[in-house]
Amino acid sequence: MEAVADTLIDAATPVAAARAPESSWRDSAAGYLFLAPWLIGFFGLTLGPALVSLYLSFTDYDLLSNPRWVGAANYVRIATSDPKFSAAMHVTFLYVALAVPFKLTFALLVATILNRGLRGLPLYRAIFYLPSLIGASVAISVLWRQLFAGDGLLNQALKLVGIHGPSWISNPDTALYTLVALSVWQFGSPMIIFLAGLRQIPKDVYEAAEIDGASRSQQFWRITLPLLTPVVFFNVVVQTIDAFKAFTPAFIISGGTGGPIDATLFYTLYLYQEAFAYFRMGYASALAWVLVVIIAAFTALSFLSSRYWVHYDG
């Protein structure tokens, strides 16, 4: 009987071995089938267009004729003979330098207040998070333009106290600051992340500090902020990248011109003008890749510097 059983097992082994690859292939096929929407989106809508854009950045292309290879001419022009590029870079870096610190500071302040255990905390979180959801929309940008216009709501309120305010969006000295204010108003997203980070700090650390006589200010600077640095680092990177990519508010408030006198000419807005107003697609592609390099360089420097100021557990 044992000999017969061994014979049957030996006979079945090749059949099982032949079926194993087929079963494995079916399992893999099912996985790839579920991944197909993401793979199609990544290769068809992200990687593919990015590679095409990289090729176009070395060409002269106007959408109407075939791309003409010009080598690094677009990049040479960016670096040497484009005053608009310099103006857009100045406006964008100034916007990032102002909007990100103010936004994160205000978000941390609100998160610290909410962390004290207010009643109706979920409602407050929803209310404060709402501007982050709708702040980048066209409707809010239009509303912001009306708010800071010469006869807008802000100047109407200032008139009540005898102050005659300027047309904030038409004045090159103040136009950019209206966009900074709009960015700070959208503090809900980093605020939620800060609040989650604050909730992870053990309460017994604060209790021990109170026993040692530490004030609220000392607790914040020596306990809260050091333990919150990983969250601060995350918010700084994400919000800075978003600030570099800001487009809709500047486009709507300036009417797509970047005015007055290029005061709101964001880098993305200048890129849009080159691509869709002047149909210089090759040059616009070069501008886009320069922005990619700038963002990548900032991100790399952020990670390199994080070892000196970001404190992780252990």
TrEMBL record:
List the InterPro entries.
ABC_transporter_permease, MetI-like, MetI-like_sf
Kindly give the SUPFAM superfamilies that the UniProt entry links to this protein: MetI-like
The ABC transmembrane type-1 domain sits at 89-302
**Where does this protein reside within or beyond the cell?**
Cell membrane
Q: Which residues cross the membrane?
A: 32-58, 93-114, 126-144, 175-198, 219-238, 250-272, 284-304
Swiss-Prot/TrEMBL keywords: Cell membrane, Membrane, Transmembrane, Transmembrane helix, Transport
A single GO CC term for this protein reads: plasma membrane
Instruction: Indicate what this protein is called per its UniProt record.
Output: Sugar ABC transporter permease
Q: Which organism is it from?
A: Bradyrhizobium niftali
Upper classification of the organism = Bacteria, Pseudomonadati, Pseudomonadota, Alphaproteobacteria, Hyphomicrobiales
